[in-house]
Amino acid sequence: MIRAEGIRKTFGCRKAINNITVTIQEGNIFGLVGTNGAGKSTFLRILSGVLKPEAGTVTIDELPVFENEKAKAKICFLSDTAYFFPGATPKTMAHYYGIVYPEFDKKRFDELLNKFGMEQDAKINTFSKGMKKQVSVLLGICTNTQYLFCDETFDGLDPVMRQAVKSIFASEILNRNFTPVIASHNLRELEDICDHVGLLHQGGILLSRDLEDMKFHIQKIQCVIQNPVLEEELLRELDVMQHEKRGSLLTIIARGTKEEIMERVESKYPVFGEVLPLSLEEIFISETEVAGYDIKNLIC
Ligand SMILES: Nc1ncnc2c1ncn2[C@@H]1O[C@H](COP(=O)(O)OP(=O)(O)OP(=O)(O)O)[C@@H](O)[C@H]1O
After folding, report:
1. Whether 184 and 231 share a structural domain
2. Three-state DSSP class for 21?
3. Rounded CA gap, 94 and 119, in Å?
4. Is 207 within the bounds of a domain?
5. Which residues form the ABC transporter domain (predicted)?
6. How large is the ipTM?
7. What atom of ligand 1 comes closest to residue 38's alpha carbon?
8. Are 197 and 218 within one domain?
9. What is the pTM of this model?
10. Number of folded domains in the chain?
11. Which of 108, 126, 205, 240 falls 20 to 30 Å from 87 in CA-CA distance?
12. Residue 295 pLDDT exceeds 80
């Protein structure tokens, strides 16, 4: 488990991280989302012990991370600009990773590389941006470290590749103790990968939520209720986060389970009423509006 408590970091007079407290549970895929400059890279660098915070503590499985070899042995950090040696090939990078990470699984790397259709001896500098990211993720996974920090590693991967990486992550979680933390400036890139998402804004965590839990407790309903008095009643009775009326169609985003909400809707004799799937973006829009923010300024 990763615990960050009261983390602060300033560069000159710029507060990059402003009092972050967050817990990352083992076996979760944790997404960290925020606009450019929100503090994602700085926070990941602090989590991995590369940077020292001015205040606060970070522990990984109870071990302080800064200047602590034992804690660092549990981490692999993939920075936003993957570094490959000049003239490197996947094979030479795997050799290097094998020296740095004692548990590096060369056989698995070869298998995965093959599965992703890349050649061992091809020069990485001839690869596309997305392919370089794939090599970087595969190297990271094969280090077999317990924690994998990915800084914008998924941004720019196509949906098929995201799905492939997601299924590799899922099988790693199933087969060993593995906890990836993924930073991105794009919520949509994280939606199908993460179990838990923290929204970072101006160096602070604005929201940190379990996705399944969020999807279970927030619903989007569309209904037509002919009687305006009953319609008003419904809006009063539900814990409404957002609502909009177009013609006679009322769309509501409200807190509660599907059953609780539909029971309320049914009690108003709707001509029609149904629960619709809610995207992560819609959930975040509703949550942050309630908190008084305009999400369009917080995510892409
Ligand atoms: N080494 C540094 N020196 C000075 N300022 C820095 C340094 N690193 C980060 N900052 C500042 O800290 C703030 C947070 O930067 P950070 O790179 O952590 O954001 P980010 O969320 O990762 O952004 P992006 O999505 O653009 O990568 C920014 O205002 C940035 O200018």
Report:
1. no
2. strand
3. 12
4. no
5. 2-227
6. 0.95
7. 21
8. no
9. 0.82
10. 2
11. 108
12. no
